[in-house]
TrEMBL record:
The keyword Signal applies. It comes from Oceanobacillus locisalsi. InterPro entries: Bact_solute-bd_prot1, SBP. Residues 1-23 form the signal peptide. Keywords: Signal. This is Extracellular solute-binding protein.
């Protein structure tokens, strides 16, 4: 009798496990769901016959529309697709914490959108099955994304993880557009330049002389500040190329390619970097760089800029930040030639500069339809809708192409183009998993002044900037500790050398300290990551 009861008990337990497993399988979408596929249209609109709802965790920038559940473009797109995106918007300020909480707790959305998911998390949770691999889904259900990756195999390479999987649709800069690939840009105050009687500087020596002459002038009764930006890093962005360092772009702030050997280099110990620091030290100690540059607040920088105090700066379009009158005084600065004949501009970003912006989780019962939803915005018609809004409301078709309406370009409430459009679309602002389209985008970098600056700089932009590398879990753990310590020490010593707090006689001790901290181990990890990237894995 006891034996029979025990068998009955075990059978009940087994049955319960089966029920739990079935329940889990029903909840966790893994693709190929028969009911979902029957409801899906392979192409055209609507994407699904019967309406479905996708729960979305979405990062929200301050400049974006307040509630994406009621935005004209998305409302129209919902009618077109039969897909109701239930947007749970998370402000960028608290994004990382809430994103990590969702991943750790297992309380997952169907989709992470514009969430700036780090590569390490994409890889980690992708291998755990939390994020759905997109390779086969792209091949079958995303013709626009597929065609783009075939046209630019280097971009496909840049979004494919070491295990061969694609776990996210990225935000992309246009690889054919210099202004899109440039981050900040150099600007010279033309009125101050004319007062000095000088030409637009072409070399680091001429730049130094211009800043010295500008320091003696005043504008509108204000003392001139020769050179500034919102951080010291942005000033380095203008000048690293003149000293032959950071020649693979700004996504890797300490490594580049040794121009003599072609090997990976930690340029923060190179002689050329020391020369750069000595030059920056000269500018700083002579008062040619704004003296609070290491602690400057954006509001302080903008206030000085609006008063026309800056003779030179490395930042974004001055008209956007200083207004038409003062901002209109600025002309593009040049790529400067340094003491060794180097002349490059290195403030360049790989087209694949931010990867984790559209990741489908294993909770999603409609991954095929979800991918079709974003694929439309990679088409020409979809890009026009995403960036320009709705025909007849925000733009009109003309013989010269689509043009924004008067209400947008000359808003009766005094709104900028971006502010006026924000009532209709979810761009600008945020990490949208689309290509920055120069034909339709109203982003500041496509304004006439930026295009002129980029055209001026184009011959000197570095080629093939590195994207972020992919690291194995153990490598990432080492970089999070050892790598972080090295970067912190480098930043501290850079500031001390530039401000004169530490003498350049301590340079050898600085290099030795880095070696003792484990620089060889750090570089070994970077070499393996670079090798994986070059092998296209």
């Amino acid at each position: 009798m006891k034996k029979n009861k025990r068998i009955l008990f075990l059978l009940c337990i087994s049955f319960l496990f089966v029920l739990v497993a079935c329940s889990k399988d029903e909840k966790e979408g893994t693709g190929g769901n028969e009911e979902a596929l029957e409801n899906l249209n392979q192409d055209g609109m609507p994407i699904v016959e019967e309406e479905i709802t996708i729960d979305v965790f979405a990062g929200k920038a301050a400049s974006a529309a307040d509630d994406w559940n009621d935005v004209p473009v998305l409302n129209e797109y919902e009618k077109m697709t039969n897909i109701d995106m239930n947007w749970n918007q998370v402000p960028v300020d608290g994004l990382e914490e809430k994103r990590n909480l969702a991943l750790a707790s297992g309380d997952l959305p169907d989709l992470f959108y514009g969430s700036y998911m780090p590569n390490s998390d994409l890889y980690k949770y992708g291998q755990q099955g939390i994020f759905v691999p997109l390779n086969d889904l792209i091949d079958e259900y995303a013709p626009n994304i597929k065609a783009y990756l075939e046209e630019y195999p280097e971009i496909k390479q840049g979004i494919t993880f070491p295990d061969g999987n694609i776990y996210a649709i990225p935000r992309l800069r246009d690889p054919e557009s210099p202004t899109s690939l440039m981050d900040d840009k150099p600007w010279i105050n033309e009125e101050i330049l004319e007062e000095t009687g000088m030409d637009n500087p072409e070399t680091t020596d001429e730049f130094y002389e211009y800043l010295k002459a500008a320091k003696e002038l005043s504008v509108d009764g204000n003392e001139v500040i020769p050179l500034s930006s919102v951080s010291m890093d942005r000033l380095f962005h203008w000048l690293t190329g003149a000293f032959g360092v950071s020649n693979k772009g700004i996504l890797h702030p300490s490594i580049d390619e040794d121009p003599d050997t072609g090997e990976l280099r930690f340029y923060r110990t190179a002689d050329e970097y020391k020369q750069l620091l000595e030059y920056m030290n000269k500018l700083y100690t002579e008062g040619l760089i704004e003296q609070n540059i290491y602690s400057i607040e954006v509001d302080h920088f903008l206030a000085n800029g609006i008063e026309g105090k800056y003779a030179a700066m490395n930042f974004f379009n001055p008209k956007d930040y200083f207004g038409e009158e003062v901002g209109g005084r600025y002309i593009p600065g040049n790529a400067l030639e340094g003491p060794n004949g180097d002349k490059q501009f290195t403030s360049v970003i790989s087209p694949v500069n931010s990867l984790g912006h559209f990741s489908i989780t294993n909770m999603n019962e409609n991954p095929e339809a979800t991918l079709r939803w974003i694929d439309y915005f990679w088409s020409d018609e979809g890009a026009k809708m995403f960036f320009m809004g709705l025909e007849g409301e925000t733009y009109e078709e003309t013989p010269d192409g689509p043009e924004l309406t008067e209400e947008i370009t000359n808003n009766p409430n005094g709104l900028t183009v971006q502010e006026a459009l924000a009532s209709y679309i979810i761009n600008p602002g945020g990490g949208h998993p689309v290509i920055e389209n120069p034909e339709y985008s109203t982003a500041p970098e496509f304004q006439p002044e930026d295009l002129e600056n980029a055209e001026n700089m184009a011959p000197y932009l570095i080629e093939e900037p590195w994207p972020f590398f992919f690291y194995e879990e153990e490598e990432q753990a080492t970089l999070d500790s050892l790598g972080a310590d090295i970067q912190k020490y480098v930043a501290e010593m850079e500031a001390q050398f530039v401000t004169g707090e530490t003498s350049f006689e301590e340079w050898d001790n600085y290099v030795k300290t880095l070696e003792e901290m484990g620089l060889d181990e750090y570089m070994e990890i970077q070499k393996k990551a670079l090798q994986r990237y070059e092998e296209g894995q």
